[in-house]
Amino acid sequence: VHQSKLDFFCKLGYGKQDICKVLENLGQEALEDDVLKELIRMGSKPQALENQAQPSQLKLVARGSCSTTPGLKWLGEDESDASSSLRPIVIDGSNVAMSHGNKEVFSCWGIQLAVDWFRERGHTYIKVFVPLWRKEPPRQDSPIADQHILEELEKQSILVYTPSRKVKGKRVVCYDDRYIVKVAYEKDGVIVSNDHYRDLQNENPEWKWFIEQRLLMYSFVSNRFMPPDDPLGRHGPTLSNFLSKKPVLPEKKWQPCPYGRKCTYGNKCKFYHPERLHQAQLSVADELRAKTKVPLALGKEEERCQCSP
Fold first, then answer.
1. C-alpha–C-alpha distance, residues 70 and 26, integer Å
2. For 66, 163, 181, 240, which has the most beta carbons within 10 A of its beta carbon?
């Protein structure tokens, strides 16, 4: 039992010393959920994050006769390394499978559709979390369709089973939602689920912000995985910017005025007027005021000249 727990948390990236210390404090029979809570409380971080904090400086070979400094990138290399600009994807396998099965059947084909959709976009880091007891033969109260897909995704190192066991004939299941949110938070990725994780939002204020900003909801339309084009609402980022680390701001395009030359808003018009490029864009009322002020001013000057001796 000790070795299996040690191997499991080592796969998540935690150090052996921290894991052994937690197991000594909680005991060898402690649940994986409790061990994970204690690791989070201790502030232990996976080794992957520590390596990201201190990236190694790569030397790039200069092209042509010009010499380049380390860290300089060419335009062609940025285009070829487009996958590195995409965020990691963490999929709630149970939520996706039950949604595809109309909340009646655990449809593994729905998980495959979601994974294929992100693969086609170029995402390289895709993880799917599913409880371990889903490997068991299907029963009447928990039917499973296309169960062989789980084995294929596990061989591809995409699917991760959250631990579960039986104690005196009763199944003890770890809270898989905590694994999903924790891995997505550490990888600075995106959570794919229709669940809001309200209990985890109340548990950690940092997770609350992360879930609100990085939760990608979806729908299945005729066996087609369809996330929304505006994941954070009408005024939020687009789907492509939501899934990328470096969002691209759209260029501001001026829409031509529908009234054209008949427009009476002048400089207050928010649309584009190509005929007013070299003109003072005054409203009609301002132009009339300006025209009436000029003759009045001239008439007053003439009266002053006639009255003066």
1. 48
2. 181
